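Handover notes (outgoing to incoming on-call)

Open items:
1. DUF4440 domain-containing protein: sequence verified, structure written out, both below. Nothing else pending on this one.
2. Nothing else urgent.
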Amino acid sequence: MADAPAAAPAAPAAPGPAAVLPPTDPAELPGVFARAFNSGDLAAVDRLFAPGAVFVTEPGTAVTGEARRAANAAFLALGVPIALTLRHTYVCDDTALLIGDYVISGTGRDGTAVHLEGSATDVARRGPDGRWRYLIDNPSGTDRP
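DUF4440 domain-containing protein structure tokens:
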């Protein structure tokens, strides 16, 4: 009787939200953010923010700490994916200005249509580990209050 063929090795598991790490290139931060956001994992999103980072909830209003996390959680709760297109990256030493466009469009968890879009102006900082994280997340860009 012949031996059964050896089973093929299992394919590596696709990286989950826990595998989302801040990038070493600031131009990659928006794409990494989109993957974390679209995973629905707030912890994965939060890893992409520097300690003390600021989130601009509307022109003229910025939050940090738990309020920043709550603002991100509110966007995640929509249950609609984000698409980001980076237009410009300007880097000086350990600071980068990221300008890009975003669209959050689809049907929310509650069945209502969701459509948010804008041009963001964000500031990122390279940490001591060489990875870039948001220092200022300003999805309102240059909108006026």
